[in-house]
Design a protein that fits this description.
Blueprint: E1 4-11, E2 14-23, E3 28-36, E4 45-51, H1 60-64, H2 68-74, E5 77-81, H3 120-135, E6 138-148, H4 150-161, E7 168-172, H5 182-191, H6 196-199, H7 204-207, E8 217-222, H8 228-232, H9 234-244, E9 248-253, H10 260-278
Parallel strand pairs: 4-5, 4-6, 6-7, 7-8, 8-9
Antiparallel strand pairs: 1-2, 2-3, 3-5
Length: 279
């Protein structure tokens, strides 16, 4: 079934639109945004999936990141899902911005009651791309993945866990070692249970000990980010990449914080990084 169009806006010669559909994986309605570049009028175009951070929705990236101008130039489709299922009715799923609705951590939960609805890895990696390929002019053989904060964590982990799915990868201020920080410990203990060994399969720094992304990963981190030391731990990810031979460019930017002014400042660099392998 085709997704329901919620709104559509002409943008840099292309179209920025928002959709809703019934998801098999999350057992409820999901929303996502799509920027279709002008080149899609002549055939299928590469597609870049963006995963947003805690508290964000499918609208956050499209409204705040300023990505459409360069995406239109490069011929990149941009797809951004919501950060979790909504209106789940699960006790404890709302009221805490660090967990539950708006804070899926892009994994498939294994514990009750979360495992019935919080299946975001399967949604992002399989269901959403299939839907996009069926109903939009997207070339799924040319997919890239990037994200911010919790979504940066999601991008790194999903690319490492699903080899061959993505041809390019980057992140803004990702949670680099979630099994070692308060955000990750709260989410993993509830979604995955108390066995910490299970958490490592969803931690990019730990995954690098046995899996590498075939291309170079680009990461940008602001030094003025208030979450950098306690929650993000970029040095842990950087050391893991060096130790295990992962090609990584981790750039630190003086004074930049965790928000979308930082992301918008570096968005063009990330889109051009992806275009090298997608266009």
């Amino acid at each position: 079934m085709a997704p329901e169009l919620l709104s559509s806006h002409r943008c840099f010669g292309g179209t920025q639109a928002f959709y809703r559909h019934e998801s098999r994986e999350t057992a409820g309605a999901m929303r996502f945004s799509v920027f279709t570049p002008p080149q899609a009028a002549h055939g299928r175009v590469p597609v870049l999936f963006y995963l947003a951070g805690l508290t964000c929705t499918e609208e956050t990236f499209a409204i705040k990141a300023g990505a459409q101008r360069v995406a239109a130039e490069l011929g990149l489709m941009l797809v951004a899902p919501d950060t979790s299922p909504r209106d789940t009715g699960i006790a404890g799923a709302t009221g805490d911005w660090e967990f539950g609705e708006g804070a899926s951590f892009y994994l498939d939960a294994t514990t009750a009651p979360w495992r019935e609805r919080f299946r975001m890895e399967s949604y992002v990696v399989h269901e959403l791309p299939t839907l996009v390929g069926e109903h939009f002019p997207a070339d799924l053989s040319r997919c890239g993945l990037f994200g911010h904060s919790m979504g940066g964590h999601g991008a790194l982990v999903l690319a490492l866990r699903n080899p061959g799915r993505y041809r390019s990868l980057s992140a803004f201020a990702p949670i680099g070692a979630p099994s070692q920080c308060p955000w990750g410990e709260k989410a993993f203990s509830r979604y995955l249970g108390d066995e910490r060994e299970q958490w490592l399969a969803h931690d990019a720094s730990a995954l690098l000990a046995r899996r590498r992304f075939p291309g170079r990963i680009l990461i940008d981190q602001g030094t003025g980010d208030k979450f950098i030391h306690e929650q993000l731990r970029p040095e842990t990810l950087e050391h893991a990449a060096i130790a295990h031979g992962q090609a990584l460019t981790l750039r630190r930017h003086a004074g930049y914080d965790h928000g979308y002014y930082f992301i918008a400042s570096l968005m063009e660099d990330h889109l051009r990084h992806h275009a090298v392998n997608l266009v």
